[in-house]
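During the practical work, I worked with a single protein chain and the tokens that describe its fold, as given directly below.
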Amino acid sequence: MYKRQLLALLGSLVIVGFFWAAFGRAKVVPGKLQMIGEAGYDFVRRGLVYEALGKKEGEKYVPFMVSLFFFIWIMNVWSIIPVAQFPVTSIIAYPAGLALVVYVLWVGLTFKKHGFVGAWKNMTGYDKSLGGILPLVVVLEFFSNLLIRPFTHAVRLFANMFAGHMLLVMFSVASWYLLNGIGIAYASASFVMTIVMTAFELFIQAVQAYVFVLLACNYVQGALAEHH
């Protein structure tokens, strides 16, 4: 229990420390660390926030989305770091907590933008033109947006990180077991698979951070969109 809490704390310190070092004394002609920081920041700002919300509306949400992306990413990356070797996001409480923050932001923005009645219409897909199927649509949209959405937002990240971690553990343990049992040829094959899965997991870790923040941006965009 203490290990995952320590990794979450260390991850936060790593992120804060990196961006502090990169931008604490920003220069017109950036150094290597500042260039890396700017590239990461710009990737989230332009590739996610601006794409979903536009430059004018999205700028205010850039710091939050950048923080969210890199926090999730570093929590995932702990899985392949020696000694740590544990993705914090494979514990459901962490993705659930992050999904709850996004959920509260989405609901709050929806009510702020549309008012009480307009917000409920926005979140339930209320549209008189639907005619007789309107009650069914409202019920389905209510459960989909207010109950299922935060659940799937959290579980998507948790399930991918948990499954990836289990695969790495399985192939790592198999390598040692086969080396002491069947023989070096089988152990070598398992070891190669461990390397392949580690590289694949590194890719998935970044993708899951990207998907989580992309969905968060889409939820904010939905909250700010005009209801028709």
Q: What stands out?
A: The two ends are 48 Å apart (CA to CA).
